[in-house]
Specification:
Length: 355
């Protein structure tokens, strides 16, 4: 057997089926212990940030980034851990304000069993001459790297309400503070953050307002084009004759807001929450919720479903829009119209076809 043939057989008959089985086991186990894992992770974050706050009390240093880095060497040792580090500015470049290693036994559940299963299957297939143990472990590490996004989504959900805590509010923050999860000195994914106040009306097209919070603002006759509004929070804001064009709105929240004569077009509402909000004479055109702004399945960057709760929708039109998986609860509907759209049952039930 040639090396190329052995690698092909390893992938098809060993790695892929065992990886799929392990991935299912990991997701099921995390789901079964979701609340327990959330309690532990939030506790770790809180304890670490409380310690950082005490350092800030002595030094006055403003906080810019908190990284949670998965340590692959700990996985090889059978004791998964992450390294939490706080930085004033550039992570992994500047010296950290402080750091702490914490055990995370709920991550990469039964990874050692996954490695052993691949080793055993290799032997059964007679591939040991070509696929050595270091290669098997390297493949297993790559498998773990490939599912980091699962933990990112879960941990982002765990920290959804953390900005409301006393711990978070007590921190001395720089212009933009982010908490991230990823690999040490490699790519990091933002879990939550906070930035200094922005004026949306002064931003250029395609600007980012991610993690901004807006309260009691009024926007009239504006066009927001290409804005990154992911993870933003709008509370008690009014939008009149505002166009949202190709904006990134993943996990944005609109709470007790009012939309009058507004248009949402060419954008994703993945993970967007609309709560206690009134939408009047609004148009949703080429809007979707199953993927992120790129429209590709791999662009899955949300910790939740699109949800519309306790809202009033009056004279709202949905055109070429896909909101099939949106969760709509306790809403009032007056004259909804639909054209070539795939809506959830609650919206579809109250909508009539546009002529």
């Amino acid at each position: 057997m040639e090396r190329v043939e052995a690698e092909k057989e390893f992938m098809e008959k060993c790695y892929m089926p065992l990886f799929q089985s392990w991935l299912q086991e990991v997701t099921q186990q995390y789901g079964a212990e979701f609340n327990k894992n959330e309690t532990l992770f939030v506790m770790y974050i809180k304890q670490f940030l409380d310690a950082v706050s005490k350092v800030q009390d002595r030094t006055g240093i403003e906080l810019g980034v908190i990284t949670c880095s998965i340590l692959w060497t700990s996985l090889l040792d059978g004791t998964p851990a992450i390294l939490m580090e706080a930085y004033a500015q550039k992570p992994f470049v500047d010296d950290p304000i402080m750091g702490e290693k914490v055990s995370v036994p709920w991550m990469f559940y039964h990874w050692s069993n996954f490695v052993e299963s691949m080793e055993r299957r290799c032997g059964e297939l007679g591939l040991g001459t070509y696929i050595r143990l270091p290669e098997v472990k390297a493949k297993a590490i790559q498998a773990a790297r490939d599912i980091v996004f699962i933990y990112w989504i879960a941990m982002k959900a765990h920290l959804r309400q953390f900005p409301e805590t006393t711990t978070w509010r007590s921190l001395k923050k720089g212009p933009l503070l982010c908490v991230t999860l990823g690999e040490y000195m490699e790519r990091q994914y933002a879990l939550l953050g906070e930035r200094e106040e922005l004026d949306l009306t002064l931003l250029e097209p395609n600007s980012s307002a991610r993690f901004a919070r807006f309260q009691n603002k009024v926007y009239r006759n504006q066009r927001f084009e290409g804005f990154v509004l992911s993870d933003t929070v709008f509370e008690r804001c009014t939008f009149q004759n505002v166009e949202f064009e190709a904006c990134t709105m993943c996990d944005a929240r609109f709470i007790d807001c009012t939309f009058e004569h507004c248009t949402f077009s060419n954008l994703s509402l993945m993970g967007t929450e609309i709560y206690a909000t009134r939408l009047t004479d609004a148009i949703f055109e080429r809007v979707w919720s199953e993927t992120g702004q790129s429209g590709e399945r791999k662009d899955f960057l949300s910790c939740g479903h699109t949800s519309i709760t306790n809202c009033l929708l009056e004279r709202v039109s949905f055109r070429n829009t896909e909101l099939r998986q949106a969760r709509v609860d306790n809403c009032q509907f007056i004259k909804l119209h639909v054209l070539e759209s795939d809506l959830c049952a609650s919206l579809q039930k109250h909508a009539v076809e546009e002529e």
